[in-house]
Amino acid sequence: MTRPPLSEQAAAIYQTNPQRELPTRRGTELVMLGFAALIVTCAFVLVQVNQEQELSWSILWYGLAYLALFAVAHFAVRRWAPYADPLILPCVALLNGLGLVMIYRLDLALQERAIQNGRAYASTAPKQVLFTTLALVLFLAVLILVKDHRTLTRYGYISGLLGVIALALPAILPASLSQVNGAKVWIKLPGISIQPGEFAKILLLIFFASFLVTKRDLFMVAGKKVLGVELPRGRDLGPILIAAVAAMGILMFEKDLGQSLLLFGIVLVMVYVATERGIWVAVGLLFFAVGCVLAYNLFTHVQQRVANWIDPLATYYDDGGGYQVAQGLFGLGTGGVGGTGLGGGRPDIVPEANSDFITAGLGEELGFVGLAAILVVYLLLATRGMRSALAVRDTFGKLLGAGLSFAVVMQVFVIVGGVTKLIPMTGITTPFISYGGSSLLANYILVALLLRISDAARRPAPKPKLRAVAQAPLAEAHTVMVTRPPAGSGNDAGSES
Questions:
Q1: Which of 204, 216, 389, 393 is the most exposed place for a label (fewest CB within 10 A)?
Q2: What's the CA gap between 299 and 296, in Å, rounded?
Q3: What pLDDT digit, counting tens, does each position of 282-321 carry?
Q4: What does pTM read for this prediction?
């Protein structure tokens, strides 16, 4: 009996046992987005009831805007990143929605105070909705244009150069165009202000990831050994040192200590992830300690921040003193474990309550339990990003995904640690929650890149194409001589195949 060719056998097996398609989990994402919308809607209702003792049409406007924006985001992910992690976008939607609720709640309080004082007040919640719309436009652009995150490696050095230039622009501009509250980190244009450092952070992450991919082995074996540490060659280590030192030096000159700490932590973690050598963490922490001592002795604003951290009440009435930190701590103490309830506290008496100190307002009205739940959402977002970074197949994706995920964790640690007096206050925004356009735009670009990496990690490998076994032409086929078996052997030669 003649057997069919191997290619036909494989095709038959494949037809009877087809390869299972991995679920995209977009339905799960849609359900979680609905749950986030329910929480945000209930929060809006509580604010209205506690503040104005009635419900107004503004809730309907904000609710419909929120639903429309994230419905578009969901269908964009379904179309251009169908295998992305189903929890990343709902976590972002929940954080963004809670931030919008708190900004709206502060608007109501500040508007009432302005009316009592006979002044006009411009609400910031509609601007936050506009910023969210622009952020989602950038989110869609990244998903559509960056079809494969690995293409970003082509622009590694260009990204590093653009990142350093973006950081340096506010430093070279006059104070009238770049300085706000003592920090030269803005570019103030007619009708709009941009903080280029937020975008520089992502550009530098792309540069560091692409550089470490190409120089990873040199960080572990090449160069001289100093005190038992194998150092890379100067020409290999030079680009990343120049970029990191230039970026942090510019940020310190601009008095932007929060971004300096954030960038330093991200670089240190990415070097550790690339090399898996703890010695680089120790060396980085040593440089960090030296940098802290130098910054304290060279810059008076650093000394003021440290004094406010040690005892904010001692500098309570000083110019640039501990008034803001102390008021935030009073609010957290008032909230206690369960909070005063949305609309039941006084977060509006804290300076910069809708940006730098928005977590103090959330802690006052939601209490320790509510603030801890928000931090868990941040942790879940970063964990899912790290999981995608571990699962993706290429080294660049692993480094970039880890850096982007850690950037969220580090930024939350720096701002919440400053508000709670765990570390000196640095003045950066809380991702997705704080009022502000630059931070929101940059963080949605970050989320789009995370979703792209997650899609690549969860996307099934392409199905193998079955190729027919090539048969030699008849003229080139070999002839095999078969010997007839002896008569009476009991074998039937015709049954041979």
A1: 393
A2: 6
A3: 878 887 888 788 888 888 888 898 999 999 999 999 888 8
A4: 0.85
Q: How far apart are CA 258 and CA 240, in angstroms?
A: 20
Does residue 486 have a pLDDT over 70? no
Average of pLDDT values for 42-58? 84
State the Cα–Cα distance between residues 402 and 396, nearest whole angstrom: 10
Report the C-alpha gap between 368 and 258 in whole angstroms.
Answer: 24
Calpha distance 114→124 (Å, rounded): 14
Q: Position 112: which residue type?
A: E
Beta carbons of 305 and 425 less than 8 angstroms apart: yes
Asked whether the predicted pLDDT for residue 476 surpasses 60, the reply is no
**Mean pLDDT of the region 477-490:** 54
Model pLDDT for residues 202-214, shown as the tens digit of each residue: 999 999 899 888 8
Q: What is the 3-state secondary structure (H, E, C) of 116-151?
A: HCCCCCCCCHHHHHHHHHHHHHHHHHHHHHCCCHHH
Total residue count of the chain as it appears in this document: 497
- Cβ atoms of 353 and 106 within 8 Å: the answer is yes
Read off the tokens for 94: 């929940």
What residues are paired with 225 via a beta bridge?
230
Q: What are phi and psi of 400, to 5 degrees?
A: -65, -45
Cβ of 350: how many Cβ atoms within 10 Å? Answer: 25
Considering just the CA atoms, what is the radius of gyration of the chain in Å? 29
Separation CA 440–CA 422 (nearest Å): 25
Residue % of the chain over a pLDDT of 70: 80
At residue 225, φ and ψ (nearest 5 deg) are: -105, 120
Cα–Cα distance for residue pair 419/224, rounded to 1 Å: 44
Q: Please give the DSSP secondary-structure letter assigned to residue 189.
A: E
* Among 221, 220, 201, 199, residue whose Cα is nearest residue 209: 201
CB 379 within 8 A of CB 406: no
Measuring CA to CA, how many Å separate 147 from each of 268, 412, 451? 28, 29, 11
Q: What is the pLDDT of residue 271?
A: 83
* Strand, helix or coil for residue 225: strand
- 379 Cβ contact partners less than 8 Å away, ≥ 6 residues apart: 409
- The confidence score (pLDDT) of residue 238 equals 63
Closest alpha carbon to 356 in 297, 276, 415, 270:
415
